[in-house]
Amino acid sequence: MMEGLILIGTIVAKIVVIIVALLLSVAYLTFLERKVIGYMQSRIGPNRVGPRGLLQPIADILKLLMKEIIVPTASNRFLFIIAPIISMTTAIAAWAVIPFDKTFVLANINAGVLYIFALSSLGVYGMLIAGWASNNKYAMFGAMRAAAQSISYEIAMGFALIGVMMAAGSLNFQTIIQAQSGGFWHWYWLPLFPLFIVYWISGVAETNRAPFDVAEGESELVAGFHVEYSGTAFALFFLAEYMNMILISALGASMFMGGWLSPFEGIPYLESAFAWVPGIGWFLIKLGFFVFCYLWFRATFPRFRYDQIMRLGWKILIPVTIVWIAVVTLAVQFHIGPWFKEIL
Amino acid sequence: MTLIHIIFYVFSAVAIGAGLMVVSSRNAVHSALFLVLAFVASSGLWILLHAEFLALILVLVYVGAVMTLFLFVVMMLSVNKVMTRESFVRYLPIGALVVVLMVGITFLAVGPAHMGLAIMPTPPMKPADFSDTAQLGSVLYTDYVFPFEVAGALLLTAIIASISLAHRIPKERKVQNISKQIAANPKDRVRLIKMPSSKRSQ
To answer: pLDDT digit string (tens) for A136-156?
Structure first.
């Protein structure tokens, strides 16, 4: 009984650590986003609240929490309230299987990749329900676009991940990362390069971020599916979006960039010189690179037109993945290079 | 009554309750959402049976893709037509007949005569590194490879059939020629004129 309680206690403690860290990183990611895009557009960005504007996210959070939640009279009250909760729950729950380090993972389950994939496909319900329950034409359009887009890009993303699963011969994250050990050139971004690019494009599309953010489309749909939401309810959607961004980055880091593995493995001098860096440090550096790319894309690319998004997903990304899966099949069969070793 | 029992009964109750709400709810969107809940609850039951691959695929395919498309269509329909009590009563006999048939067949196939600890002893607990996915794959691609391939071919036929049913000749579609759009050259469309700025009079 005592052992069970201790076990539950440690699990709850881990969950609390992960969630608090996530909330903090989302808060400062918004700050970073405004700063990075600001500098890219020759502006300074937020610099008024606290030293160098560092307390800006705190001020934003307080503002959102203080605001009144307005429920439109003609809306479907229950679904209107539950939609942001669904978005938030699926965004948080997916973090359960992300490996931060060799030993630090909340649930090291066998079908980890599938679990993440199933939860990310659930996330679209938050948007769909929000759009419908708001009883607003803009919101409805936003929800429709979001749903169509995430269904289409889920296929491309799934195929890209199938390549990784075939190369590693497993659905378990730790096994996938271990299979990439051996330094920078052994990670899967190189042998699976087309899949890596497809994964990254569809990851950006899946989170409805620029240049694929037609679901919000300020210029045409006001704010898309969350146009009727205010205060904390809006904050939940916002949090879910940013958590999903970090999640897609974490997935990219662990499946194509070797997760917590050091990039200097196998290089005589550098390996020992950087041996003091903990695995989680490498993981966070890789994750940070992907997150930065999100901001970079937003500052760089104009928004796609809706039919072009669909065309890119169905007619370009999916055929590319299908061809490369055939290539990976042959490579796995004949154990090509250092990447496709015989799985024992 | 262990924790597993409690989880089992909670998920079963949710699945059955959601199933009842699917047919009795008056709003089509609510029905679709209750169906989603029923799927999620039954995938929870499958996880209890150590069938994590099937459970996650159920969520991925049915909840993530099929039901999203369902909702998509249901939301587009004019949902203001609330189902009346009369139509419920009118469809009741045929519904009852279907229920009786289904329950009867299920009872014959997996009724108490086929169940119980005497016929089917409790399966031993699987070790922690037991991979249901690998087991399923090795059976599917060896013993059942022919039925599996036939099912795949059937699905492919269904895809081709549905596309050819919905496909329209280009004249009826408002299709955009993307390569033409990309190849558009500003020189063909915009004429830039050099004009000397004129001095303002006065």
So the answer is: 888 888 888 888 888 888 888
| Element spanning A215, H or E | none
Cα angle A109, A152, A115 (rounded to 5 degrees) comes to 10
Instruction: Please give the C-alpha separations between residue A129 and each of A36, A60, A144, B74, B195, in angstroms, as whole numbers.
Output: 33, 26, 10, 12, 56
Burial class (CB in 10 A: 0-12, 13-18, 19+), A91: buried
Q: Which residue of B has its CA nearest to A82?
A: B33
Is a pLDDT exceeding 60 seen at residue B79? Answer: no
Q: Is A100 helix (H, G, I), strand (E, B) or coil?
A: coil
Q: Compute the distance between CA of residue A282 and CA of residue A263 in angstroms, rounded to an integer.
A: 8
Tell me B191's DSSP state.
Answer: -
Residue type, B69: L
What's the predicted TM-score (pTM) here? 0.85
* Cα B29 from Cα B135, distance rounded (Å): 38
- Whether the CB of B150 is below 8 Å from some CB of chain A: the reply is no
CB B106 within 8 A of CB B112: no
What confidence tier does A323 reach under pLDDT thresholds 50, 70, 90? very high
Q: Give me B3's structure tokens.
A: 């924790």
From chain B, pick out residues whose CB is under 8 angstroms from the CB of A131.
75
CA distances A307 to A15, A298, A320, B71, B174, Å, are 41, 20, 19, 21, 11
Cβ pair B75:A111 closer than 8 A: no
Min Cα distance B142 → chain A (Å) is: 17
Distance CA A60, CA A232 (A): 11
CA distances from A181 to A186, A261, A269 (A): 7, 7, 17
Tell me which residue in A115, A121, A171 faces B63 most closely, judged by beta carbons.
Answer: A121
Terminal Cα-to-Cα distance of chain A (whole angstroms): 38
> How many CB atoms lie under 10 A from the CB of residue B171?
6
